[in-house]
Amino acid sequence: MFQNQYETVFILTPVLSDTQIKEAVEKFKKTLTDNGAELVHEEHWGLRKLAYTIQHKNTGYYQLFQYKADAKIVATLETDFKRDERVMRYLTTKLDKYALDYSDRRSKGLIGKKSSEPAKADKAEATTEENA
Amino acid sequence: MSLVNDPVDRKDTARKKYCRFKKAGIKFVDYKDPNFLLKFVNEQGKILPRRLTGNSLKFQRKVSVAIKRARHLALLPFVADGLK
Fold first, then answer.
1. Please, are residues B30 and A102 in contact by the beta-carbon 8 Å criterion?
2. How buried is residue A84: exposed, middle or buried, by Cβ count under 10 Å (0-12/13-18/19+)?
């Protein structure tokens, strides 16, 4: 059966300690793997400033999972998020072919360091052309 | 002063707009990159229209979805004052 790839980003409350964060992340990872999802990539962005306050908090721990799974698992995971008070926000997106290509390059560290630099340089050129 | 409408001599004629995604060959607009998406919002955090960004419809749609996702994850503000 063909499985889609999904990407989930969620924000944990900043009141947790490092071990509690690890525990929470492990818990959600476990819900994924227990339901037969294959974890492709994960990222921990760490404590980040929020653009606006959520539950009177200005910061939050961001965590990203990219996984291959059946569509049913997304619902299971999101129920878990809803039940867990430590999760402030979550967002799950289905990855299309362009997104897959992008996240592939991103996980290899090509984007944000190198690959997006030429893109940004392109843009810089474009703007200079505009000004010229 | 003549009453006839003289042709105005504009030095820089209107430049053709172009879609920067098509030009740079970008296929995917990432919602996780708020610094990039900042180019497509005004200083209040509103999404800029196509007539200003010059994006093609296809990419304007993708940009707007990406911005909305970024807002949900608090990577971009819904409302701001002096974002730039």
1. yes
2. middle
Question: Domain residue spans in chain A?
Answer: 4-95
**Could you give the CA distance from residue A130 to residue B17 in angstroms, rounded to a whole number?**
9
How far B3 CA lies from chain A's nearest CA (Å)? 35
Q: Is A110 on the interface with B (CB under 8 A)?
A: no
CATH, residue B58: 4.10.640.10
- Does residue B43 sit at the A interface (CB-CB below 8 Å)? no
**Global pTM exceeds 0.90:** no
- A53-87: pLDDT as tens digits: 999 999 999 999 999 998 889 999 999 999 999 99
Helices then strands, counting H and E runs in chain B, come out as: 4, 0
* pLDDT tens track for B12-71: 667 788 888 888 888 899 999 999 999 999 999 999 999 999 999 999 999 999 999 999
